[in-house]
Structures are given as structure tokens and as C-alpha cells.
Amino acid sequence: MPQMNKAGRRHAVGRRHAVTGEGRGLTRLRVALTTFFALDGFVFAGWVVRIPAIKEQTGASPSTLGLALLGVSAGAVVTMVFTGRLCNRYGSHPVTVVCAVLLSLSVTLPPLTHSAAALGIVLLLFGAAYGGINVAFNSAAVDLVAALRRPVMPTFHAAFSLGGMIGAGLGGLVAGSLSPARHLLGLGIIGLLVTTLTAPTLLRHEPPRPPEHVTGATGEPAPPGPDAHGPEPRTRRLVLVFGLIALCTAYGEGALADWGALHLEQDLDASAGAAAAGYACFALAMTVGRLTGTTLLERLGRIRTVVTGGSVAAAGMLLGSLAPELWAALVGYAVAGLGLANLFPVAVERAGALAGPSGVAVASTLGYGGMLLGPPAIGFMADRFSLSAALTSVAVLAAVAAAIGFATRRAAAG
Questions:
Q1: Residue 224 and residue 112: Cα distance in Å, rounded?
Q2: Dihedrals φ, ψ of 103, to 5°?
Q3: What is the pTM of this model?
Q4: Are 290 and 41 in contact (CB under 8 A)?
Q5: pLDDT for 231
Q6: Distance from C-alpha of 302 to C-alpha of 402, rounded to nearest angstrom
Q7: What is the domain partition of the chain in residue ranges?
Q8: What is the DSSP letter of 206?
Q9: Is 149 left (phi over 0), alpha (psi -120 to 50) or beta?
Q10: Residue 156 to residue 401: CA distance in whole angstroms
Q11: At what angle are helices 116-148 and 153-174 packed, to 10 degrees?
Q12: Are 154 and 345 in contact, with CB atoms under 8 Å apart?
């Protein structure tokens, strides 16, 4: 009997050690993925702030520059469609690492071009790397979220937002002293160093397998994993539903990034500094919302988070676009950022949980399409009506996202 007790104790100790080791492995994976999300935002924002200097270097007119910049969008969208298949075949971790290397190398190329055509070609490569890494690390994050059984997806997207804010701030500081070539070369070197230090963690660990038939931390049933023979028609429809929610959210992000400051300056007579503060309020609020997103999801659940967030964003954007005073518009921008913060992470996570990397690819592609659709749509509506009226479309689509979440609440939760 004592021998049996000793054997039982040894078994219990071994099991505790295994669980502890598994927990440490998941923690290391979470830190590594968070680093790649932050790196992506950092590199992309660093490129964006040097676009004016690249325009001057290439001698491009506004129209030809716009066509060249479409290279980023075209490369990203095309690659997103295929990256899900690559993740299914090779694994999301190796694909993340390869795309991080390509992103770091390709960001150094734009300063080497001297024509809009050449710029467009290198931006196709940069966009392909950007689109690929977004699908790959979101797919890896979906697997990790399921294994952790906690809705931590917003924290990854918060890291992307923080990386973007740091990249944009650093770019603004060095723009006057460093040429675009040196600045973007520095970004590439930083990207390669971070990838070299972080990649071994991803490459040593297989994507974690979530426990089957469990209830998630939000109290909602965990969705069935992707079928090896491909998603069923019902699953495909749900993935499209979450993709539409991502589209509605990203539409607002793109619209405010390109038109938010102009609305404050043109319609409310704000100074250039105050107008720039408008998007800063939106971006900062979105970052704060994502940092607190896990707590919100644990308390409300995914569906109520989508419905509440879409409703709050709609109210905030109505205030931001129609308020007659600058301070009220800034408050509206911040409220809209808080409301939109967690819609995209939830949509991508649920699409990935339903259909694996292919689901992430569909939701990401639709979301990125919304970000591309927003700025030109706002411009056409502003020409026909007014800019303030056009920006109310952000509120309309946020309300649509909330309505979609409410209408599909039973199917999406099960």
C-alpha cells in the first residue's frame, strides 16, 4: 500500500510538472507572437511616415503615387488568399517567420526606386509580405487562444497598435535627420534582429492543440475545429459573417486614418496640430480598448462584445462627424475607437476557430478590403454631399456590424 501511495504521488508530481511545462511553453509562444504583432505595426508605420519623402524622390504626381501605393494593397490581398493554404500545409509558425524576414527586407526597397513604376513593383513585394504575416500570425494566435481557453486575441492586436504608434512616433522624430534610405534600412535591420531572436520559439513549438468539447472562458461553447475535408456550407457562411464584421470595422479605421484630420481642419476650423490630434485620440482609444479587451470578453462574451462595441462606435462616430465643436468631435473619435477596438480581433479569432487558417484568410481579406474601400468611398460621398455627412457612413457600418452580431448570435455562439 505505501508503494502504491508513493507511485501515486510520483505520478501526481510528474503530471504537475508536465502541466507547468506546457503552461510555460504557451507563455513563451504568447510572448513571441505578441512580438511579431508589434514588429508588424512598427515596420508598417515606419514606412507610412516616409511616403511624402519617397514621393519627392520618385517625382511622382499625386495620381501616379496613388497607383503605386495600390501595390501594397494588391500584394496584400492576393497573398492573403493563398497564405491560409500555406499555413495548412507548412504550419502557421514557419510561415510567420518567413513573412517577417520578407517584410524586413522589402521595407528597405522603396528608397532605392526613382520612378512610380519601380516603386509600385517593390510595394507589391512589401504588400505581399505584409498580407502574408497578418494571416500567418493571426492563425497562430487563434490556435493559442483556443489552447489557453482565454479570449486574449485583443492583446495581440493591441501590440500591433502599440508598435504602430512607436513606429510612427520614431519616424516623425528621425524624419528631419535621416534620409528615407537610412531610416528604412534601420527598420529592416531591427526587423531581422527581432525575427532572429524570436523565431526559435515559434519554430521549436508546434501550434498548440485545444482541448475538445470544452466551454470557453467567455461561457460560450468552443466551436468545432476545422474539418479536414474543408468547412461545411454552414461554417463557410459563418466565416463570411465574421468577415463582414471585420470589413465594417476596418472601413472605419481606413476612413478615419485618411479623412478624420481633414474633417476637423476643414469643417471645424481646427489647426493642423489639433486636427492631427483627432486621429491620435482615435488610435489611442483603440489601443486602450484592445488592452482591456480580454477582461471585456470574459465578462460579456464575444457576441455581446460585438453588439455593444458596434453600437458604441456608431454613437461615437455620429458625434465625431456631426458635432459643431472641436472638443465634442475629439470625444466622438475616442468613443468610436473604443467601440471598434475589439470587433476585428473577435471576428478573425472566430473565423479561425471555425475554419482554421483558411477562415483567418477570408476574414482578413474582407477586413483589409474594407480598409481599402473606406477612403475612396468617403471621398466620393464627400464630393456629392459633404465630408461630415460622408463620415456618418462609418457609424452606419458600425451599426451594421452590431446588427449582424445580434442577428447571428445563436449560430455564431454554437
A1: 48
A2: -65, -45
A3: 0.80
A4: no
A5: 55
A6: 12
A7: 1-209, 218-414
A8: P
A9: left
A10: 21
A11: 150
A12: yes
Cell of 270: 481646427
**CATH number of the 1-209 domain:** 1.20.1250.20
**Residue 217, helix vs strand vs coil:** coil
Contact residues for 48 (Cβ-Cβ < 8 A; gap 6+)? 168, 171
- The 10s digit of each residue's pLDDT in 297-322 is 999 988 899 999 999 999 999 999 99
Enter the C-alpha cell of residue 388.
Answer: 461630415
Please give the CATH topology (third level) of the domain spanning 218-414: Growth Hormone; Chain: A; (1.20.1250)
Rounded to an integer, what distance in angstroms lies between the CA atom of residue 132 and that of residue 81?
A: 9
230: left (phi over 0), alpha (psi -120 to 50) or beta: left
Q: Tell me the three cell numbers of residue 394.
A: 462609418
Paired residues of 215 in beta bridges: 221
C-alpha cell at 397: 457600418
Pairwise CA distance, residues 364 & 135, whole Å? 7
1-209 shares its CATH topology with 218-414: yes
Buried b vs exposed e over 194-204: b needs ≥16 C-beta within 10 Å?
bbeebbebbee
Residue 367 burial (C-beta neighbours within 10 Å; 0-12, 13-18, 19+) = buried
| Distance (Å, whole) CA 288 – CA 377 | 28
Residue 177: DSSP 8-state: T
**HEC secondary structure over 278-345:** HHHHHHHHHHHHHHCHHHHHHHHCHHHHHHHHHHHHHHHHHHHHHCCCHHHHHHHHHHHHHHHCCHHH
Which alpha helices (DSSP H) does 149-292 contain, by range?
Answer: 153-174, 180-204, 233-267, 272-291
Residue 107 C-alpha cell reads as 521595407
Tell me the per-residue pLDDT of 246-289, one tens digit each, with 9 for 90 and over.
Answer: 999 989 888 887 788 888 888 999 887 788 788 788 888 989 99
145 near 155, Cβ under 8 Å? no
Helix (H, G, I), strand (E, B) or coil at 99: helix
